[in-house]
Specification:
six-stranded parallel beta sheet; alpha+beta; binds zinc ion; flat; 25 strands; eight-stranded antiparallel beta sheet; single chain
């Protein structure tokens, strides 16, 4: 009889939709994904929730500014957030939107329970209000000006529903005492305890001055205000009023930024206690990534975006850096320099190099089959012991969310294997029986170590660890492998190696940083799409997919319009692939008067070497622009063939001079 799996439920915050995700949001969601993958490998039935917080006056305003109804505005934002998580390979199991009907019902149900149990009453809220922005300004004093529009604020009193937070001082303190690991890390726990000990004031949970919110049933125009709405999303995601049927509540882990820990560890358990519902088991507050020691924010212009990093180095590199460089729970400094340095040292030269070296040696010496280990020397046994010990240590650290420690342990083992290979020198061994047997032992040992390392690293490096796993000929999906069964010595002799793949191509630091920054700049300040050249039978491949996909222009143009496009014969001098851009080739092209760098979207159809010396038609008077962070100064003209738009370069059947103008 199959054992019923234990459930594990974790959440990221329900992100506020007033902008797009930056590295801070990405960090929390990556951590959630790492925990999810890890727990699955420990045999749990895991659900991870993220989502979007879509109510409130800021959304009301943003929608107004965009000239669309709120529902349309938030639907677009939610789609964009969901799409980015999908693109980054960290999709939620449950993506909850606070405008979902199931969430609306859950909030109204929770309110009803709190009210029935006597913890909600009608009162009056007095605050400083901007009549132009239709919003209360929290923490403003009478006489202050509006921080948004600068106009004087007015003191306004409105009818609100209040939650009797003051009744929960003792129950909360008792709860913290009984559940010492509820608030993590411990420094945050102490902060919260002294905050609660200082006394709690009742909390206004509805507004009549906001329109865009969940209505309080039978009490219109009251709508729920911020936290009573947003926090409840964790419960709506796993069944709401019917949570018992799905069995994931109470949550095992809420991951939050340190700025919202109070709401999660004071308000949220109090709301649930008032409704006689179980409180979550743990809230973990992580620090912020600082850019030059300042908190990242859109207004400061120091935002780091995930996509450019992923395009350049891959998602695993970003995941590794975020978890390796900062102790979870503390603030960390984000710098591209540190990111690329880590990438080159730990991933390209570390794991990537060890895997490709080992596979190449097994390929060469044992026809690609895992060799049989023979008599062991002490150094083989030392390495085996170290790898076996690492298993326990890594699992223990993952359990404590000590990701940096876990990765440090894994990479210590990788470094030891590197050293071992270097001193054993299997490549220098000959073909005598003794030497052949030594070679087998050394390569089996290294391969077995790689198998263990890739299983342990999988939660953090799902893509590349799986590649190493496949390279070692392991056929079962690594994500479903049970870590509890991982032991030294399981690598089967005779297993055929899988296909070798590039793991982490080394990058030049300065160039990589320049390109990441250029791509980030493109994303933050998008240039309007360049219109396709009017005479558009051939497609200009230098403009990337956007222009290539533009519909054919059928309106006729005058000769003067065509004359604006300057096309010349160019000769390709060099051509190379671009790391992180599968479709682009970087070309240098002689156009007679100068040599230009041009990017062309032809990498899937042309081998770089085949292009050297070829003459092509070039649009030379196009404004320079960056494609995937690489400067492109001009366009190569190509026909677009077939439904997939395969580019076919133009050519000349007679000798033409480089630089000749096309008319
Ligand atoms: Zn104002």
């Amino acid at each position: 009889m199959p054992e019923k799996k234990e459930k594990f439920y974790l959440t990221t915050p329900i992100y506020y939709t007033n902008g797009l995700p930056h590295i801070g949001h990405t960090y929390t969601t990556v951590v959630a994904d790492v925990v999810r993958r890890y727990k699955r490998m420990r045999g749990y039935d895991v659900v991870m929730t993220t989502g979007t917080d879509e109510h409130g006056v800021n959304v009301e305003r943003a929608a107004q500014k965009a000239g669309v109804p709120e529902s349309e505005y938030v639907a677009k934002m939610a789609d964009a957030w969901r799409a980015l998580w999908d693109e980054l390979g960290i999709p939620a199991d449950e993506f909850v939107r606070t405008t979902d009907l199931k969430h609306v019902r859950t909030v109204q149900w929770l309110f009803k329970l709190c009210k029935e149990n006597g913890y909600v009453y009608k009162g009056h809220y007095t605050g400083q209000y901007c009549i132009y922005d239709n919003a209360f300004v929290n923490d403003a004093k009478p006489g202050d000006n509006c921080p948004d529009c600068g106009r004087p604020l007015e003191t306004i009193t409105e009818e609100n529903y209040f939650f009797k937070l003051s009744s929960f001082q003792k129950p909360l303190l008792d709860f913290y005492k009984k559940n010492p690991s509820f608030i993590q890390p411990d420094t945050r726990r102490n902060e919260i305890i002294s905050f609660v000990e200082g006394g709690l004031r009742d909390l206004s949970i509805t507004r009549t001055t906001i329109r865009w919110g969940i209505p309080v049933p039978g009490e219109e125009p009251h709508v729920f205000y911020v936290w009573f709405d947003a926090l409840t999303a964790y419960l709506s995601a796993v069944g709401g009023p019917e949570y018992e049927k799905r069995g994931y509540w109470p949550a095992d882990l809420h991951l939050v930024g340190k700025d919202i820990i109070r709401f999660h560890t004071v308000y949220w358990p109090a709301f649930l206690m008032a409704a006689m519902l179980p409180a979550p088991k743990q809230v973990w507050a992580h620090g912020w990534f600082l850019m030059d020691t300042a908190k990242m924010s859109k207004s400061k212009g120091n935002v780091v975006l995930p996509r450019p990093i992923v395009n350049m180095l891959g998602m695993d590199a970003l995941r590794y850096f975020l978890l390796r460089d900062v102790v979870f729970g503390q603030d960390g400094n984000f710098s591209y320099d540190a990111l690329v340095t880590r990438y080159n040292s730990d991933l390209a030269n570390g794991l990537g190099n060890l895997a490709s070296r080992t596979a190449a040696l097994i390929e060469k010496n044992f026809a690609g089959k895992i060799p049989k280990p023979d008599a062991l020397k002490p150094q083989d046994e030392v390495l085996a012991k170290e790898a076996q010990a690492a298993i326990g240590e890594v699992l223990e650290n993952f359990d404590k969310l000590s990701f940096a420690r876990a990765l440090e342990t894994i990479w210590t083992v990788i470094a030891a294997a590197d050293k071992y290979l270097t001193s054993e020198q299997p490549w220098a061994l000959g073909n005598s029986e003794a030497e052949q047997s030594r070679k087998s032992t050394v390569l089996w040992t290294t391969a077995e170590l790689l198998r263990i390392v890739s299983a342990l690293a999988f939660p953090v490096l799902p893509d590349s660890a799986a590649k190493v796993w496949t390279l070692l000929g392991q056929s079962d999906a690594l994500g479903k492998f049970e870590l509890d069964g991982l032991r030294w010595g399981q690598l089967a002799v005779g297993t055929s190696l899988g296909k070798s793949q590039t793991l982490f191509p080394r990058v030049d630091k300065t160039e990589a940083i320049e390109r990441i920054e250029a791509m980030a700049n493109e994303e933050l300040n998008p240039t309007p799409a360049i219109p396709a050249p009017a005479a558009s039978a051939p497609t200009a491949t230098g403009t990337s997919a956007a222009a290539a996909a533009a519909p054919a222009v059928s309106d006729k143009i005058g000769i003067e319009d065509f004359a604006k496009v300057e096309m010349r014969v160019g000769q390709i001098k060099t051509a190379e692939r671009i790391v992180g851009a599968d479709k682009l080739l970087k070309l240098t092209v002689d156009i007679g008067t100068e040599i230009r760098q041009i990017c062309a979207g032809i990498a899937q159809y042309y081998e770089p070497e085949s292009l050297i010396g070829r003459k092509v038609a070039v649009v030379v008077n196009l404004a320079p622009r960056k494609l995937r962070g690489v400067e492109s100064n001009g366009m190569i003209v190509a026909a677009s063939v077939g439904p997939e738009g395969r580019p076919v370069l133009t050519g000349f059947h007679e000798e033409v001079e480089v630089g000749a103008r096309l008319k």
